[in-house]
Amino acid sequence: MEKKILAVCVLLLLSVSLLVAGTTGKIAGRVVDAQSNEPLPGANVMIQNTSLGAATDIDGNYFILNVPPGSYIVSATMMGYQRTTKTNVVVYIDQTTTIDFKLKQEVVAGEEVVVVAEKPVIEVDLTASKERITAAEISESWAGNVQEALKPQAGVNINDGIRGGWGLDVAYFVDGLELRESGLNSNIANVNTSAIEMMEVMTGGYNAEYGRANGAIVNIVTKTAKDRIHGSVNFRFRPSGKYHWGRNIYSTENYEWTEMATIEYWTENTGGGDFASKTPEERLAAWKRFISGEMFNAEERTHNYAERNQWETEATLYGPITSKMDFMVSGRFLQGVNAYPSPLKYCPDWNAQAKLNYQLRPNTKLSLVGLYAGHNTTMDNTTVYWSTEDNPVRAGNNIGPYFTGGYDRVKYIWWSGGRNFDPPDYVRLYTGSLKLNHVFNPSTYIDVTLGYQQFDRRSDNEDLIFYDWDINFEWPEQYVAPDNPLFYTRQLGDFWRDGVWTKNTYLKADFVSQFHPNHLLKAGAEFSYQSYKRIWHRGGAPGFLFLNHFPGPETYHPYEGYAYVQDKIELKGMIVNAGLRLDFYNANKKVSDTAWDPWRIGEDTPGNQGLNVYSFDPDGPYAVKTPTQVAISPRIGISHPITENTVLHFMYGHFNMRPGWQKLLNNVTADLRPWPEGTWPDGEEFPLDTPVFYQINQLLAGNPKLEYEKMIQYEVGFDQNIADKLRLDVTMYYKDGKNLTSAGWRRGRSTIYDQGLTTRVHTELKPDYNNPEQRAVGAMGRIRYYSNSAALEVRGIEMALETNFMKHAKFRVLYDLSYASTVRYGHERIYRPKPDGTKAGIDRLWDVSNTDGGTSGNDNQRWNPNNTIKLSALLSSPEKFGPTVGSFYPLGNWYANVFYNYATGPTYTYHGPGDFSTEPNNRRWEGYHRTNLRIAKKISLGGYVDAELSIDVQNLFNNKTLRLMGGNDLENYLENGQLPTISRTGEVNEWEIYNINNMPRQIFFGLRLEY
Fold first, then answer.
1. Rounded distance, CA 226 to CA 123, Å?
2. Measuring CA to CA, which residue among 151, 142, 132 is closest to residue 196?
3. By C-alpha distance, which of 843, 844, 842, 845 is closest to 823?
4. In angstroms, rounded to a whole number, what is the distance separating the alpha carbons of residues 983 and 584?
5. Confidence (pTM)
6. 566 CB-contact burial (10 Å; exposed 0-12 / middle 13-18 / buried 19+)
7. How far is it, in rounded angstroms, from Cα 773 to Cα 771?
8. Which of 317, 375, 954, 974 is most open to solvent, judged by the fewest CB atoms within 10 Å of its CB?
9. How does pLDDT run across 796-806, given as a tens digit for each residue?
C-alpha cells in the first residue's frame, strides 16, 4: 500500500508544478471608447519602465500576469486615440488589480491624459483575511524588525501568537525562499525592513499553493526597480541603561553588599568548608572578590550589563545594472545588548541578502536569490531556545541564559546550587535559489527553481572564557566561591552540548495559465531531499552521561514533497479560489521493530547481547523502514461583492503540517554508566559493552511514525465601505486542530512564570517487566516518545475600522475577541505486557476532563488574551507647511506614528476569607497596556537624496504588567494590597513580579539616508 501511495505522489510530481509562495500579482481590466463605451480590441496596455504589457481582446479585456508587487504607471494606447496613463497603480501579492481605461479620440497628435488611479476601498478578490504592510508603512513605523511590524496587525496577540497559535505553526517566506528550517520548524525571520517592498500576513487560511504551516503565512517580497539605482542607510542607537524592572541586579544596595559584605557578618558566619579555618578578614576579602566579579573577571561580562550601548546599522541598494539586469543587496548588523546580565557581553545579530534578475531572452528570465543570517545570543531570539517545542525538560532545574532576579543565587557563577545555566545559542542560516521563468505567451508561464537551505544551531559554552571541555578538569581554586546561606556555589553543574544541523536541497516548478478570461490556473509540485543531525548530551560529574547519539548513522536523510492544483475563478459577482493539495514525507530511517526497546538492551528482546548492552543493528534482521505519511488538503475561498461597497467572504480549508524532523528523528536519550575513562563521546563511538539504560528526563525521543498535524479552518466575514470615509471589516473564524504534537504555546523566557504549563505531548513506555519505575544500571529505564495526542480549538471575532478621508491623518481601531483551548488525549503511560499478558502497572490516559487544573486542557488566556484592542494613528504634515527659513520648512514633513495595545488579563479563581462560594474563574486579573511612538522629520538634501531623523519610544508610559500570583502571594495582594517580597530581606520583589514581555521604556535614536 505504501509503495502505491508513493507512486501516486511521484506521478503527481511529474505531471504538475508548484508555486510555494506567491511573489507576484496581476493587473487586469477593460479598454473602451470614452464616448460610445464600446470595447477597443487591439489596444496596448503597458507598465512603464518594464517589459510587461498586453493587448486587449475582442471584448476590450486585457490582463498582465507575473507583476511584482509595488506601485506602477500603466498606459493604454491605440491608433487614433489619446494616450491615457494612470499613476499610482498598486499591485499586491496573489491579487488582481483592476484598471479600466476610457480612451478619447485624438484631436492633436501626441495628446496624453494622465490620471491618478483610485485605490478601491474594498478589495473584491480577497477570499480570506489578509493583513498587508507596505514599504512606506514600515518606514513610518516604530518597528525595527519583522516581528515588531507584525504586532499591530489583526489576529496577532501580545505574545506574537497568531489566532491562538503558538509560533511554530507559522511559515515565513521572502522572495519565495522559505525561512523555516526543517529540523525544528523554526523561522529565522531576519529580513531587513529597508529591503521589504511588501509583507502580507495570511491569518485566515490560504490557497493550496501554500503549505508546511497550519496556522498562518507571512509572505515578504523585496524591492526592485528599473528606473535608477535606489539606496538607503539606516542607523539606530539605544543608549546604555537599565532596561528591566527593579534596581540593578548587582547593585551595592542589595543584601549581599549591605549585610554580607561586612566584617560583622563574616565574624558570625564561617562560610563552611575551608572558609571555616580562615579569619573574618580573609572571608570578607574573598566574599568581596566574589560579588564584585573580580574572582571570575566578570565585571565586563556581567556586572556592567547596564553600561553598554546598543546599535544597529542597515543598508540596502537596488536598481538596474543594465537594461536586462537588476539587483537588490541588503545587509544588517545589530550589536545587541541584553536587558539582563548574561555570559555574553554582546549578542550580535546579522544578515545579508541579495537578489539578481537577468532577462536572458525576451521571454526568459533568471533570478538568483540568497540570504545568510545568524546570531550569537543569550537574549530571547527567533528560534526555539527554551521552547516547549524542542527541549521541554529545560523548564525543570535549568534556568535561562541570563539572570532576571536581584537575588538570583546563580548570578555570580553559572553552575551552582543544582540549577544549571543554559548556554548561549549560536545560529546560522544559509539559503538560496536559482529560478528560471519562461513565458510561453501572454497568458502562460512557468517557473523552475532549484534551491538549497542549510541551518546550523548549537548551544554550548565553548566560547565562555572559564569553560574547559576536558571532562577531567577541576575548577581552579580561584573559581571556588565560599559557601553561604544565600549563594550556594560549590556544586559542579552540568556540561551541556546541543547541536542541530539540517540541509535541504529541493527542486520545484510552477505553472500559471490564464487559460480562460475567468480562470487563472496554478499547479505545482516539489521534491525535497534533506539531512538531519542532532547531537545532544549532558553530564554533571564523572560516572554518568546522558546522550542521544550512538554507534551507527549520526545523519539521517528524510525526504518530502507536495503537489497541488488551484483555480482562481473571477466572475462579475463572485471570486472563487479552489484548490487541492497533496503532501507526503518519510523519515527515511531504519528503526527497531519494537518501540519498547529501540536499542534492544533488554534480555527479553530478541537480538540482545546482554542486559543493558547496546545491541541494535540498523542493517540487522530486527530493523524496519519508516512509513510514508500522506495528507490531502482541500481548500476553497469565496468573495461575493454584494455592491461596490460591500463584500462578503468565506473560507474553508484543511491544513496539514509535518512535525519538525527532531520530533521524528531524535534518537532515544540514554544514560551511560560508568563513563568510559578518558573518553568524551562527542561523535565518537563508545564501547558497545558500556552499560546503557533509557533516560526520560532529557531530550524526548523522536517517533518516526508521527502523522501530519491537522488543522481545519473556517472563516466568514464582510468588508464595508462607509461613505468613502471609513472601512469596516468584521470576520468570524474557527480553527479545529487534531493530531498535534504540542499541547501548549511557545514558551519564551519572557513569559515562563506566567505560562506555568507542561505542554509537551508524549507517550511514556515502561518496558522493564520487573523494574518499570527504576532508572539505574540493571533496569532498562523508561522512554518518552513524541505523539500526535493534542487538540486545539480557537474561535474568535476580529473587527477593524479605519479612516480613508484624511491625507495627513490616518486612524485604525482593531478589536479581537479570541478563545483558544487545548487538550491532550490518548495514552500518557503504557506498561509493557509480560509474556503471560499481565502488566506491572496500570496504563494511564491523558486527562481529557479538564479536572487537572488546566495542564492538559485549558482556555489559556495568559497566552491568548480573550479581548485585545489596538489603536494606530499616523499623523503627518505636508512637505511645505508653516513658516520658512530660506527654502526650508521647519514644520513640514514631520510625522508621528502612535500604537496603543490593550489586552485583558486572564480569569482566575479566588474565594477569600469568609467566601464559601465555589464558582470557578470568578475574577479577572489586571490587563496589559503598552504604547509605542515614533516621531520623525524628513529633510530633502537635494536631488534624489533625503534624510530622516527619528525617535522611537517603546512602552512610552512605562506600563507594567503584574504577573498572576498564586497561594499566599495572591491572598496577601488581594486582601492587603501587599506585593510578593524577598523572604530574606522583606523587599518587594520588583525584579520578578512583572512580566518581562512588557519591559521599561526604551528610546531609540535613528538616522536614515535615502537615495
1. 28
2. 132
3. 845
4. 56
5. 0.89
6. buried
7. 6
8. 974
9. 999 999 998 88
